[in-house]
Amino acid sequence: MSILRFISALLLSVLVLSAGVSAQGGQQAKGKTYTVHIKGFEFTPESLEVTKGDTVVWMNDDIVPHTATAKGAFDSKGLAHGRSWSYVANKTGPHPYICTYHPTMKGELVVK
C-alpha cells in the first residue's frame, strides 16, 4: 500500500470515527467499521457479514472508476481512483451488489 493511500485510509477512518457520521444521509454510525477494497476489478472481501448499525467503507484502489450498487439497498455512485464511500448497514438481509460500470464485479453484504 502506498503511503498516500495509507494516509487517505487513515484520515477517512479518523473522520468516520470522530464524527460518527457516514456519507449515507448523515446517519449515526453505531457499530464497527469494515473496509471493502476495490482492486484488480474485484471487491475484497467479496462477501462480508456485518451487524445492523455497522459501517461499511468501499475504497477504490483501482485506476478506473467503480460503483458498489445493491438494488433497493445502496448505491455509491461513481468512485474515482483513491475515493471511498461509506454506508451504515440499516437494512437486514443479504444484499448482493455489483459495479454498474463492470457488472461482472460482484460482492455481497449480509446484514444481521
Written description of the protein model:
The chain has one helix spanning 3-19, and strands at residues 33-39, 42-44, 47-50, 55-60, 69-70, 74-75, 84-88, 93-98, 106-111. The strands form three sheets. A four-stranded mixed β-sheet has the order 2-1-4-7, covered by helices on one side. A three-stranded mixed β-sheet has the order 3-9-8, with no helix packed on it. The model is unreliable at 6-27 (pLDDT under 50). A hairpin with a 2-residue loop joins strand 1 and strand 2. The protein is α/β, with parallel strands linked by helices and 112 residues long. It is 15% helix and 37% strand. It contains one helix and nine strands. The termini are far apart. It has a single domain (3-111), classed as Immunoglobulin-like (Sandwich), CATH 2.60.40.
What's this entry about, in short?
The protein is of the alpha/beta class.
Features of this protein?
alpha/beta; globular; 1 helix; Immunoglobulin-like; 112 residues
Structural class: alpha/beta
Strand content: 35-45%
Computed Rg: 13 Å
Largest sheet: 4 strands, mixed
Mean pLDDT value: 83
Shape: globular
- Write the H/E string, N to C: HEEEEEEEEE
| CATH fold naming | Immunoglobulin-like
> Class in CATH?
Mainly Beta
Any idea what the CATH architecture is? Sandwich
